[in-house]
Amino acid sequence: MATPTNPQSLVEQALVATTADDCIVIVRDHTSANLRWANNTLTTNGVMHGLTVTVVSFVGEATGSVTGSATTQAQVTDLVKAADAAARAASPAEDRNPLVTAADSPASPAWDDAPEPTDIHVYDAFAPALGEAFGRAQAGGRILYGFVNHEVTTTYLGSSTGLRLRHVQPTGHYGCTGKNAALTESAWVGGATRDFADVDALAIDAEVAQRLAWGSRRVDLPAGRYDTILPPTAVADVMIDAYWYAGARDAWEGQSVYSRRPTGTRIGERIASPGVHLYSDPAHDRLQCAPFNVATSSGSESSVYDNGLPLGRTDWIRDGELAALLQTRHTATMTSQPVTPAVDNLVLDIDSGAGTIDDLVAGTERGLLLTCLWYIREVDAQSLLLTGLTRDGVYLVENGEITGSVNNFRWNESPIDLLRRFSHASATVPSFSREWGDDYFSRTATPALRIPDFNMSSVSQAM
Amino acid sequence: MSGLDPTFTDLPYRALGDAALTRARELGVTHADFRFERVRYQSLRVRDGALQGASDAEDLGFAVRVIHQGSWGFAAGVVLTPEEAVRVAETAVAVAVVASGMTTRPVEIADEPVYDDVTWVSAYRTNPLEVPTADKVAVLVDWTQRLRTGSAVDHATAYLQQVQENKYYADLAGTRTTQQRVRMQPGFEAMGAGADTFDSMASIAPPVGRGWEYVTGTAAEGAWDWDAELDEVPELLAEKLKAPSVEAGTYDLVIHPSNLWLTIHESIGHATELDRALGYEANYAGTSFATINKLGTLQYGSGVMNVTGDRTQEHGLATVGYDDEGVETQRWDIVRDGVLVGYQLDRPMGVMLPELNGGRSNGCAYADSPGHIPIQRMANVSLQPDPDPTGPSTADLIGRVERGLYVVGDKSWSIDMQRFNFQFTGQRFHTIKDGELVGQVRDVAYQATTTDFWGSMEAVGNRDTWVLGGAFNCGKAQPGQVAAVSHGCPTSLFRDVRILNTLEEGGN
């Protein structure tokens, strides 16, 4: 008869079964529920449960990492055998370091607790309101397209060096695109949430309706450099790129905007305006994330040897100076800098930032207000030049008021340049990257920024 | 060629499927399908002669999808017992009940013949996941060491992604399919610095639906000529680091398949997905300028433009025998003589527009994991070569250009949410002057509107210039899914395309 399993027992069983010198086991219990809609009707939905186990075996100077869907002791034993064999067959790992111990990272008090799930009932209040919103939109000549997702991942990390760490990560977000019946105007509203208690489908529809109304006057503008207000969601879009490309090793080897060539980093150098602070903090209010490092495989910005390292607030840019880059213990030795692993949230604070995006609009004589950015890609690593497009609402600001909607543009800009060139900033608020928030990085807080000469490289006909 | 992997066929998918479908039928659904998947991945990364990371992963589980009370219901699980299959089926039905309150248009799906217990295995000789990891790492280490012998190369990386995908599909109509396919993406990149700049040059080898023979086999087995490229790239990088910055303006472009595949992917492949044209991706990936009212009339490009959708292309990354809705895969025209004539469909789309493919799906449903619902995904979408065997070679096309650029390899890509405005860069841009290549230029991007760009295509190369390129990582849908897809194309000639200088774009 099979022995009942839980995540903790899978960890313990793997640690008993391994024949490697050392072993790290990461169990992730993941549940999610989503609703998707288009053309004022629900289109797809889903409720999912997954349980994945990663076994990282250490044999001599080598490692092996195997991940699989596993719910039984037999499946876990197979994963352990595979990881042990992979480690025995591997060449020495260049990032080898002593494993983190329980003395470095004390056990989580809730280690023994069960995983925390979500299910379709997270939408008990939202779903009926969404149905009502479809009716209102239909009656008002609007078409709604959108998606809500809620997931909870409970992570258990145990090791042969005594680590017993647990973290529960709720992640949720909503996004709704609205179009007029002629499909000539488009608007978007979106954000992040931890539990959907603060998400109201009727309020979303109302905001979409207001934004579509701004488009009653249409103005066509050519490509060029414009005084442009980036809302917090757009600032989050480009700051995430600035963060992801901040690998210490790439910088040290001369391959990024953070490099001091031919070898070295720009740490300590002023790269942004004074008063600019970009940081991560696992304890940041409403953006809470794992307070310890989790790595299922090694790469330039992660190391399996660093599993369990405690994470705290890390300043990436402090008062305009580059303060840190994404570092494993391996790269920290290479660059002679402190160990600063990636943290799963990001905050941009500007000392002079005050008020809201409405205040930035009110202070603008003539310029553009964007809704969000899309299809952002790196064009040039040396300057971190990015390209992308505006999407779902570009508005003309005249004498402090929104006076109409404008065509979309392709833009070419570097986020590092933007942090040097902005003229005004609002207060920092929770934000949600349209480009990266859905799948990769939803925990951000950013201000709106006004850029005097934002480069709109060409016109996009997309509506 | 290989048969079905016995470690997959030993799994209890038939019993789970029978249990789930039986329970769904008892609950009164009008349609139910069951999908059981095991997807194995291995990723290897080497940097400067040392193994940087190696990981193996396996995604194993099953899903039940139903149509009940006119609505979709979907649920997925990972515990491989009949009891859990029944529970997941009940959850899917319960989700459909919740969804029915928000479904204003009852769901229907196109008819499809029943395929009773058929199997399909892709074309490959040696499953890369069965090759000892140490052997594969040794190849990657060798690549980076050889690249670093180049004087301009400061650092080098190499990688190998491998996937084995097994699926069992069953539905209440009686279709049961069991399939297996293998794909892999090897590659490398060399980095170097000049006096005041740095840059890189990557392999242009495409990802393929082939086995390990792609790396170590013969040309007859479809192997890439790695030796030639490893010899060539350091010198090309050295030349690039010393190259002048491009003068922005308008140029004629001769585009090699290693770059053009990506332009096809973004501006044709995604634009002719019918779910996008109908608004079903509007909140995420976007819609399409190629709306259904333009079928048969939209001048997509010049008269030499002929594009097919094909899920049967041998070694294609989107090639499979039956899609994830039990539809036998097909090949069809998307653009004929420059005019839009077809779309990519799944079963819900097929029934909406009976004028397309006789109301039948053309086999473009795909889910990237057992935890995701099938959606309409891209077939292998390919630009056809000049049908005349004596049609132009690459040299012929270059010879027709007085002032232009020869574009090789992909790098950066971006396109708007209706697939009008795009901007691409590349691995290298060779100057063409009076029909001859005269050296590289740097800091280049090309920018255009889709129909203007394809309308400017003066000629396509002959069959000898045709290469099947592709991507491992095409993203779509919410929740996000990743699919692999191939795009074949010949070298082609475009007139008067806008070229940007990326340094100037950045204000530097």
TrEMBL record, chain A:
Coiled-coil annotated spans: none
Domain Metalloprotease TldD/E C-terminal, residue spans: 224-457
InterPro entries attached to this UniProt entry: Metalloprtase-TldD/E_C, Metalloprtase-TldD/E_N, TldD/PmbA_N, TldD/PmbA_sf
Composition bias, Low complexity: 102-111
Domain of life (superkingdom): Bacteria
Metalloprotease TldD/E N-terminal domain sequence ranges: 25-90
Region (Disordered), start-end ranges: 89-111
Entry's family note: Belongs to the peptidase U62 family.
Protein name: Metallopeptidase TldD-related protein
Organism, scientific name: Nocardioides plantarum
From TrEMBL, chain B:
Domain of life: Bacteria
UniProt keyword Hydrolase present: yes
Tagged with keyword Protease: yes
Domain Metalloprotease TldD/E C-terminal: 249-499
InterPro entries (alphabetical): Metalloprtase-TldD/E_C, Metalloprtase-TldD/E_N, Peptidase_U62_metallo, TldD/PmbA_N, TldD/PmbA_sf
Keyword line: Hydrolase, Metalloprotease, Protease
Pfam family for this entry, one: PmbA_TldD_3rd
Residue ranges of domain Metalloprotease TldD/E N-terminal in the record: 32-96
Family under the similarity heading: Belongs to the peptidase U62 family.
Protein's name according to its UniProt entry: TldD/PmbA family protein
Native organism: Nocardioides plantarum
Organism placement in taxonomy: Bacteria, Bacillati, Actinomycetota, Actinomycetes, Propionibacteriales
